[in-house]
Amino acid sequence: MITPYKRVLLKLSGESLMGDECYGLDSSRLREYAYQIKDIVETGIRLGIVIGGGNIFRGLAGAADGFDRVKGDQMGMLATVINSLALQSELEKHGVTARVYTAIRMEPIGEMYSKQKAVEAVKQSEVAIIAAGTGNPFFTTDTASALRAIEMGCDVLLKGTRVDGIYDSDPEKNPDAKKFTKLTYDEVYERGLKIMDLTATTLCKENNMPIVVFDMDTPGNLRKVVTGQNIGTLVYEKKK
């Protein structure tokens, strides 16, 4: 199969893993994601994954409730590890080899992340699930996904969400919101669009890493986006 992408970094939202639940993990959503991931890995796509932890704990929310910000962010890192282990277990159940790498040392739960280990894993058609963010407080999993995509030499950063792309306003609140099919990074800045945090967006812009924002919750969409079908919104650095 010919695809425009050979090595990709998939950023998954922790909140999406809740599915129809109010907290934690929805087993049916986890299974659905595993099916989509298995489908593209079997076509030869090399895949790294970063998962958020908002379905369990968010550092910023914890800080707002009185937690020390550093401790809150560390708790959020642990939440991403729980999600990563859950996805690894589900993938292995369906015959996909997956390894969990952590940005902070916590063997035997996961191997300490290094670029070399993760790249070697994906070359062997294993899925590299990279947990614990960047390992530092004050950085989000958006920033971690941008950093890992660049480090691993990925062709694209795929941001899987519950919305089918980027809009000029919140489509869940405004039925007349306009969807963009393509945007340059400069347009993202000019319009003040919050596709990722500014650190992550700037990392991608400065390293010419395209982002595709798409609806991961619709079965089959992951295959569509990696094969170049026109779904979601592409964000790219305009050539000068």
Topology record:
Layout: E1 7-12, H1 27-41, E2 46-51, H2 59-64, H3 69-93, E3 98-102, E4 111-112, H4 115-123, E5 127-131, H5 141-151, E6 156-161, E7 166-167, E8 179-180, E9 182-184, H6 185-191, H7 198-206, E10 211-215, H8 221-226, E11 233-236
Parallel strand pairs: 1-2, 1-6, 2-5, 3-4, 3-5, 6-10, 9-11
Antiparallel strand pairs: 7-8, 10-11
Helix pairs in contact: 1-3, 5-7
Task: Please tell me about this protein's structure.
The protein has a single domain (7-236), classed as 3-Layer(aba) Sandwich (Carbamate kinase). The relative contact order is 0.16. The strands form two sheets. Strands 4-3-5-2-1-6-10-11-9 form a nine-stranded mixed β-sheet, sandwiched between helices. A two-stranded antiparallel sheet has the order 7-8. It has eight helices and eleven strands. It has 240 residues and is an alpha/beta fold. α1 crosses α3 (69-93) and α5 (141-151) packs parallel to α7 (198-206). The protein has helices at 27-41, 59-64, 69-93, 115-123, 141-151, 185-191, 198-206, 221-226, and strands spanning 7-12, 46-51, 98-102, 111-112, 127-131, 156-161, 166-167, 179-180, 182-184, 211-215, 233-236. The model has no long low-confidence stretch (mean pLDDT 93).
Can you tell me the number of structural domains?
1
Which blocks of ≥5 consecutive residues have pLDDT under 50? none
The first-to-last residue Cα distance is 32 Å
Q: Give the percentage of residues in beta strands.
A: 15-25%
CATH architecture: 3-Layer(aba) Sandwich
Classified by CATH, the class is Alpha Beta
